[in-house]
């Protein structure tokens, strides 16, 4: 495999893993408060549901880049309005902060989706030349 194809192959995978780890950090909020340890552990696993979904998507994308790329792009685009509205209405953040939060959370997954699709087409183009 050429170097450019290797870079495009691994970049979305690395970005996705790092982004999933970042999303997983939000699960630590479950340990706040005065609940029992069992309620906190239950809350922790509830907070990790998005992480489990993203890991499943990564597994799909690892095997089928084109499908995974489409799924990551759709997830990144469709969850953006919900994250924006949550931060604007519930947390009462200013609009520019809400846009920044959406960019930090969603943009990596949109980029990952696009890179998976590009990787799929680069490999397809490279294999057709042989």
Q: From the structure provided, what is the oligomeric state, counting identical versus distinct chains? A: single chain
- How much strand? under 5%
What proportion of the residues is helical, as a percent range?
over 70%
Annotation field: number of helices: 5
Major sheet: none
Mean pLDDT: 93
SS-based class: mainly alpha
Number of domains: 1
Order of SSEs, N→C?
HHHHH
* Spans where pLDDT lies below 50 across 5 or more residues: none
From the spread of the alpha carbons, the general shape counts as elongated
Tell me how many strands there are: 0
| N-to-C CA distance | 12 Å
Outline:
By secondary structure, the protein is mainly α.
Structure commentary:
The chain has 130 residues and is mainly α. The protein has one domain (3-125). Helix content is 85%, strand content 0%. The protein contains five helices and no strands. Helix 4 (65-90) runs antiparallel to helix 5. The longest helix has 35 residues, at 95-129. It is elongated. The termini are close together. The model has no long low-confidence stretch (mean pLDDT 93).
Topology diagram in text:
Blueprint: H1 3-25, H2 37-47, H3 49-63, H4 65-90, H5 95-129
Helix pairs in contact: 1-3, 1-5, 3-4, 4-5
Provide key terms for this protein.
130 residues, mainly alpha, 5 helices, 0% strand
